[in-house]
Design a protein that fits this description.
Layout lengths: L11 E2 L4 E2 L3 E3 L12 H14 L4 E7 L20 H13 L4 E5 L12 E2 L13 E2 L2 H20 L4 E6 L4 H6 L14 H4 L1 H14 L4 E9 L8 H14 L3 E6 L19 H8 L7 E2 L6 H9 L5 E3 L2 H5 L3 H6 L17 H4 L29 E5 L3 H12 L3 E6 L7 H5 L8 H14 L3 E4 L5 H4 L4 E4 L3 E3 L12 E3 H5 L8 E5 L3 H11 L9 H8 L24 E5 L15 H10 L3 E3 L2 E7 L2 E6 L2 E5 L3 E4 L3 E3 L2 H8 L5 E2 L11 H13 L2
Parallel strand pairs: 3-4, 3-12, 4-5, 5-8, 6-7, 8-9, 9-10, 11-12, 13-14, 13-16, 14-15, 16-27, 18-25, 19-20, 19-25, 20-21
Antiparallel strand pairs: 1-2, 17-26, 22-23, 23-24
GO molecular function, one term: FMN binding
Pfam families: Oxidored_FMN, Pyr_redox_2
Keywords: Flavoprotein, FMN, Iron, Iron-sulfur, Metal-binding, Oxidoreductase
Amino acid sequence: MNNPYPHMLAPLDLGFTQLNNRVLMGSMHTGLEEESGGFAKLAAFYAERAKGGVGLMVTGGISPNFRGRLYPQASQLSFPWQVSKHRQITDAVHREGGKICMQILHAGRYAYHPLAVAPSAIKAPISRFKPRALSSGGVRTTVRQYVRCARLAAKAGYDGVEVMGSEGYLINQFLCRATNKRNDEYGGSLENRSRMALEIVRGIREAVGPNFILIFRLSMLDLVEGGNNWDEVVQLAKWLEQAGVSIINTGIGWHEARIPTIATSVPRAAFAEITERLRKEVSVPVVATNRINTPETAEQILSSGQADMVSMARPMLADPHFVNKAAENQRADINVCIGCNQGCLDHTFQLKRATCLVNPFACYETELSLVPASQAKQVAVVGGGPAGMAAATYAAERGHKVVLFEQRSELGGQFNLAAQIPGKEEFHETLAYFRHQLSKHKVELRLGQPATPEQLAAFDEVILATGVVPRVPGIDGVTGPNVVTYQQVLRQEVEVGERVALIGAGGIGFDMAEFLSEQHESASLDVGRWLAQWGIDMDYQTNGGLSERDPSAFESAREIFLVQRKTSKPGKGLGKTTGWIHRAVLKDRGIQFVTGADYQKIDEQGLYLSCDGQERLLAVDTVVLCAGQESNRSLAEQLAEQGVDYKLIGGADVAAELDAKRAIRQAAEVVNAI
């Protein structure tokens, strides 16, 4: 069999050890690090990825001391008694033939607790706590604590460590003028600002010896005012090479940067060009990262010489066997990460265990799995959206005989609509994956056929994933010819005018505002236009890589009013790590937000409102209903009347915001119980 991805699957020789391929599973904090019994679960999590063929893994960030913890309960490795917990992970990974490094991360001023320290006493915009400036002696103590942490990691059996020097954490704070205002030997010139990083690297190399992987995560593009310039990045990389690093990994953007770097709206491999430039300056392997989620994207980066390795973190949440499937030429079987952040980063920032929207088994390897059914059953699944496709796939995997009914002529449900929103094109990958799985596992499809109670009564198990219908608010005139639903718009069943009012400012309203305001091809599909839209200077004419934003990105195809009854900030319920992006785009395009609206009526003149007792007419051509949805339970009611048992999942169970994460997980849980 021909090797479909020869560069991605080529081994990488580090001299003292060899990696099986060029795929690095980047650092992800899962939340298991702090759970009771979490290290045993982490061992299963990493072992599954090692079994799946990834060349090298990096753990979530572990602090070298208490002050460096991201929050008070976060993990650190400072004492010998902590080694045995980590040994569970390394033993499990090595049994599967894998290699794993532990990331050492000191939060610096990003620490969410009052004991935070930093190079200078400058508060971060994303933390409520102002840090205390480390004394010169405090810096040297911290360096020793990094070295101690690495030495303990080696005792725990890790193949190496990654020193986190990017994303705006402590070391990155020392490196940049914006956060380093010191006048001692650790501040001022680049040599002084780099001193701490280099002392840490040299100290670790001396402590652990030459046969230990030492990765430095270098910020190649800070994307903040006062960030480093390109010459400084290159000089630091050369110093790091001289100090003994094995690999230079890439960091893009500080957490406080108001530029998206890993969300689904970021084009694939948007930042690989910057890694390519650095690779020409150093001789150690360089890793490209950010929005690399398919084997063909990875292969393109590596074959074109943009990097020596590719980092894929979330893609290994989505599919732990990504590498092996690619090697076996089973691309259609890869469950591709769609960059939504809903199960991973959104959970992390809420101090919840991470998982994955498209793979509910991620981080639940010891608690949720599909095992062969003790008795094969006849299973009917009604509804071909994400919940229904997942349920049918999982049931067939367990050995049941499955029939999937879908009243429309195509599968996909709400995901077909979501995939049309600019920046959400990746959703097509999930649809393609489940369609392939349904075929592979021989699920019988009955498309364009509404299921009847009589048909369903013949099955052993009935799972209803009948989804939702748009909620129609009780407004006078809501059935008029100028009122349409969001589904009708996305299915191109109606024409939309030049002036539009959107009723409902939740996730659906924001998606519709982006869809209707976009007048070009989605910038997510055009790297150059996307970089210009967000003001990213890949030529590095300014410190931090920032430039003036392209004003054409602010042009809206329509005049749009986004209206809600609530008086709270529009989009308050959007994703923790992506909501700000959507709010910024709509603000840029001049979308007009109307809050605290009391709907009066709709007629041919437009939408009549009362806000704070003031009557107002929005003179619009079209009113689009985005006011949520209701569970579609008409079939469930018919089955109940006829005494047919069923199970509800997805939107049919709870008509919350289009929550595919909950729907797909619920599908797994329900199928496991039959």
